[in-house]
Design brief:
The protein is an all-alpha fold. About 55% of the residues lie in helices and about 0% in strands. Helix 2 packs antiparallel against helix 3 and helix 3 crosses helix 4. This is Ribosomal protein L7/L12 C-terminal domain-containing protein.
Length: about 110
Amino acid sequence: MLLALLGALAVLGLGTWVAAQVRRSYGDLEPGGAAPAAATSAEPPAGGYTLIDAAESPDGPPLPAETLAHVCGLIERGRENEAAGAVRDATGCGTHRAEEIVAEIRRSRRP
């Protein structure tokens, strides 16, 4: 039991020392000092994920008129999967969102 306690103290002490060395290597901070602020860049972060601009529509780009006419024709013929593909190709949205758009168009075109 005493050996386990001594081992735990050794691990904690070593971890504290390593953390202090890392902190000092990132800006020569005193123990307990604040970390340096992250640099901001005009480029988007790695991985392509960016924050959505408040002015941008959450629904994505509008559907072009000729694509809308083509999609309506496909819906009238019962070819909704192809209509969703046309929406996806025209807007670049995902499959689920394209199917939602086709459903919205179908609901809005019913008498």
